[in-house]
Specification:
Blueprint: H1 2-34, H2 45-50, E1 57-63, H3 70-78, E2 85-92, H4 100-106, E3 109-110, E4 124-129, E5 136-141, H5 146-156, E6 161-165, E7 170-171, H6 175-185, E8 190-200, H7 208-230, E9 244-249, H8 250-255, H9 266-278, E10 284-296, H10 300-315, H11 325-353, H12 361-384, H13 393-430
Parallel strand pairs: 1-2, 1-6, 2-5, 8-10
Antiparallel strand pairs: 3-4, 4-5, 6-9, 7-10, 8-9
Length: 431
């Protein structure tokens, strides 16, 4: 029994090392070959901005928190350089006082508005419109899930393509043009287009720990952008990154029955369902490497919840793993790589405790994983230089210094919170 267990531990160590070495080396080599160059020719955004053939878009903004500066968010969106769009603001159970500044600025008044209720959502209590700004409509509804609020916004949306977001996202002026470029080139076959929202250091981060966590989360964003440009853009279908703005073809979302909220990642779930229903026509989902806006970092607990939802969304599509290249890529990047790292640490620790090899083995494993992770983050920062808004000199230095600490500080913190959440669920279930 001891010999069999030893062989299992040794084999786990070897397989984990080989897999991680192959994955990190492949990414680093491809990133260094590309460097900071852009491979695809960008569309003429100035021509698109004045073209009468540009497809209109409905922008759904879900307001969940009364503390959000909704007036500033709406003003930023109305300033987007895009020929025709509308803003559908869904106040999801937010008190009317949170909308006072917006109501005053645009002279919003309660009006009758007839719409087709196709998707299931909680009741609407009031609809506000203005004669000053025809592109804006505000819908107050009873509080429910974010998916429910987005479904409500899709019912109110008038245009063929829709996108949903929170009020905390800050967009570039041509963000919508760049996000819509693949759909404008092939509107009949593109079901959805995902673009990146980058995590950046919030202006109010005064504590050094908050700044350090924000830099860890920006490194995650930078690596996701690199993965899109090196891997995802070459696939016929794709998963959206964790921080993304997704432009959906409205008819495909309606045909799929709208967004579901049952513990899974609603974006991944919708991408799987729209592709399943429309793929026979050659339709597909596109993941671009475009960075269309930015937002501040989230709390550690919110980061854990996001990661757990994405993993559940991927596991629920497990039967498609053999035939779906997007699912295989997602499993490789977001499931197998963390699993191999954990397996390597546990195997070396087990071997050291059993005196099968030196007590330095777990330390060597941690150092190797830390340096490998930092190397991948460093080449991701090189790839990030191909787009505007790349880190300047001081911020780049801070990110490079934070990269080695990410694996030994940030990842263990997330793992502890994940275990704590599992423990709380088990205790609640027993009660």
């Amino acid at each position: 029994m001891s010999t069999a267990f030893y062989l299992i531990v040794a084999l786990t160590t070897i397989v984990s090392v080989l897999f991680l070495a192959w994955a990190s080396t492949a990414i680093i080599v491809r990133a260094l070959r590309r460097g900071g160059r852009r491979e695809d020719v960008t569309d003429d955004h100035e021509a698109l901005a004045v073209s009468r053939f540009t497809i209109p878009v409905s922008i759904i903004v879900t307001l969940e928190d009364a503390a959000s500066d909704v007036l500033a968010a709406v003003q930023r969106l109305l300033a987007l350089d895009y020929p025709e769009f509308e803003i559908v603001l869904i106040a999801n159970g937010v008190e009317p006082d949170a909308l006072v500044s917006l109501v005053s600025a645009y002279g919003l008044e309660a009006q009758e508005f007839f719409y087709r209720r196709t998707l299931t959502s909680s009741p609407v209590t009031r609809i506000l419109r203005s004669d000053r700004e025809e592109r804006l409509i505000v819908v107050e509804k009873e509080r429910s899930s974010v998916a429910d609020a987005v479904n409500c916004g899709i019912d109110f949306a008038r245009f063929r393509f829709v996108t949903a977001m929170g009020p905390d996202v800050v967009f570039e002026g041509d963000a919508l043009l760049r996000a819509m470029s693949p759909a404008l080139r092939d509107p009949a076959r593109v079901l959805a287009v995902s673009s990146h929202i980058e995590r950046r250091l919030p202006a109010h981060a005064n504590r050094w720990m908050d700044r350090l966590i924000a830099r860890f989360q920006r490194l995650e964003s930078v690596r996701a952008i690199m993965e899109s440009r090196l891997v995802w853009q070459s696939l016929p279908c794709a998963f959206a990154p964790a921080d993304a703005v997704v432009v959906w073809r409205r008819d495909a979302v309606l045909h799929a029955g709208g967004f579901l909220e049952n513990g899974r990642d609603r974006v991944i779930d919708m991408m799987r369902r729209v592709e399943a229903s429309e793929s026979k026509n050659g339709a597909h989902v596109v993941r671009t490497g475009e960075i269309v806006g930015y937002t501040s970092g989230t709390s550690l607990r919110a980061a854990v919840e996001t990661a757990q939802r994405r993993r559940r969304g991927a596991w629920q599509a497990g039967p498609q793993l053999a035939t779906d290249p997007a699912l295989r890529t997602f499993a490789l990047v977001e499931l197998l790589t963390p699993l191999a790292s954990t397996a390597l640490l546990l195997a070396t620790l087990t071997g050291a405790i059993a005196s099968w090899w030196s007590a330095w083995a777990p330390i060597a494993a941690v150092c190797t994983l830390t340096l490998g992770h930092a190397a991948v983050s460093s080449v991701a920062l090189l790839s990030r230089a191909s787009a505007p808004g790349s880190p300047d000199g001081p911020e780049l230095a801070h990110l490079l210094l934070a990269a080695p600490l990410e694996y030994v500080v940030y990842r263990p913190s997330l793992a502890c919170l994940r275990l704590a959440s599992v423990f709380r669920r088990e205790v609640s279930a027993r009660r």
